[in-house]
Amino acid sequence: MFTRTVWYVVPIVWMPIAINLFGRSMLQFAMPTPSFWDNPVYPLSKLSPLTLDMFVNTLPFFFLGNLMWTLLEYGMHRFLLHIDELLPDKPVFLTLHFLLHGIHHYMPMDRLRLVMPPVLFALLQALFTRLAYILFPTPVSNGTISGSFTFYVVYDYMHYA
Asked: The whole model's pTM is what?
């Protein structure tokens, strides 16, 4: 459940969220919008007034999210998941590290371990999503997060292929 994932689960879970955030970002550049918790399907109910200007305003932040995902994924993968020499020599840490990442290298042909399980990504994204909302205005955050989530799905597809 936490270490094995069928490839199609990732887009089923994360693409609707990415699309919703992209739509919210476009709308938020033009008008105030209710929070996700007040009206989760709000972007779908406002598709007709979307304009090219709204799309153009959101697109750079979407691509910023692509870049941020790339840098974060590389940095975390290189410096967090491959810290074998810094890992505490305790069974619980070794087991956790192995289950979260090591098994992916131990069994590289196991097709259920080639994408990051949504539960793990949900935990990791929570910190970075919160940081985006602290650093940027909401429309910029939503566009950036939508780009990051989309590139995560694309990255997992490429990893799986």
From this structure: 0.82
| 26: nearest Cα among 57, 63, 71, 72 | 57
Closest CA to 63 of 151, 152, 153, 154: 151
What are the CA-CA distances from residue 42 to residues 16, 32, 49, 58, 79 (Å)? 13, 11, 12, 17, 39
Taking Cα atoms as reference points, which of 29, 55, 11 lies closest to residue 141?
A: 29
What is the dihedral angle through the alpha carbons of 124, 22, 147, 10, rounded to the nearest 10 degrees? Answer: 60
- The DSSP output letter for 110 is -
Q: Which residues contact 155 (CB under 8 A, 6 or more apart)?
A: 69, 70, 73
pLDDT digits (tens, 9 = 90+) for 47-82: 777 888 989 999 999 999 999 999 988 887 777 767
Packing angle of the helix pair 138-160, 118-135 (nearest 10 deg): 150
Chain segment 116-160, per-residue pLDDT in tens: 777 778 888 899 999 999 999 999 999 999 999 999 899 877 766
CB atoms within 10 A of CB 15: 14
Measure Cα distances from 44 to 23, 30, 48, 81, 156 in Å.
Answer: 8, 16, 9, 38, 27
